[in-house]
Amino acid sequence: MGVLAGAEPFGHTGSAETGFLLCHGFTGTPASMRAWGDHLAGAGFTVRCPLLPGHGTRWQDLNRTTWEDWYGAVREALLALLATCRTVFVGGLSMGGTLTLRLAEEFGDRIAGIVLVNPSVTRLKWDTRLLPVLGRVVPSVPAIANDIKKPGETELAYPRTPVRAAASLARLWAIVRADLAKVTQPVLLLHSSVDHVVEPVNSQLVLRGVSSTDVTEVVLENSYHVATQDNDAEVIFTRSVEFAKAHAGQPEETA
């Protein structure tokens, strides 16, 4: 099966000065990031949003991938942006925020700043501990997708949550949490006051764990989890442009 219509990766070539990498969420697609990417492109940024391996086709395909595959895709896209743009920012939704944090942990000040929208680094529900066992016997559970408050808005995502892939995501959470202190870049963290997918403790852990001295927290009062497609989307888009323009001159170029 090919890529679903609307789930394709996208990019906009703008200024060679500033690039913006966007990372979509678990079981989602670049469709959830497209309006954000268009807004960034309208502000003159070069934008890239890859389709993560196992996504945008059938949920069964996601069970054949691991977090290393997803991270490899965003890492490759970041390296390409770093090769063409003087200054690069990374933004992500949900698991895209997890991947963004991991990139920040690895690449340090080569990334000028990060924008996190409802990032995930843990899950408190009891069944999370059982994921590795469940994955051997249960291929999928009900979907986590489409948590949107805005009427008539639909997320292009899988109708089921692949369990083996979810277990791999849980392993990534543990790695990212352990290294949060390595995050030193400016951080813009936007999280919904009501989120039925990612619990409030996630943003708290990130805010407490990073070493960044420049951290801005924005509460999205009128959106659920997929905030990039919800009522507060314009807040995300506007604040991320302001954030990037304010920090574009800060990082030193690396050899």
Automatic annotation (TrEMBL):
Q: Which UniProt keywords apply?
A: Hydrolase
Q: Which GO terms describe its molecular function?
A: hydrolase activity
Task: Tell me the ranges covered by the Serine aminopeptidase S33 domain, including all copies.
Answer: 20-230
| Organism from which the protein derives | Amycolatopsis melonis
Question: Cross-referenced Pfam families, in alphabetical order?
Answer: Hydrolase_4
The protein's name in its UniProt record: Alpha/beta fold hydrolase
Q: Which InterPro entries match?
A: AB_hydrolase_fold (IPR029058), Esterase_lipase (IPR012354), Hydrolase_4 (IPR022742), MAG_DAG_Lipase (IPR051044)
Position of the signal peptide? none
Respond yes or no to whether keyword Hydrolase is given for this record: yes
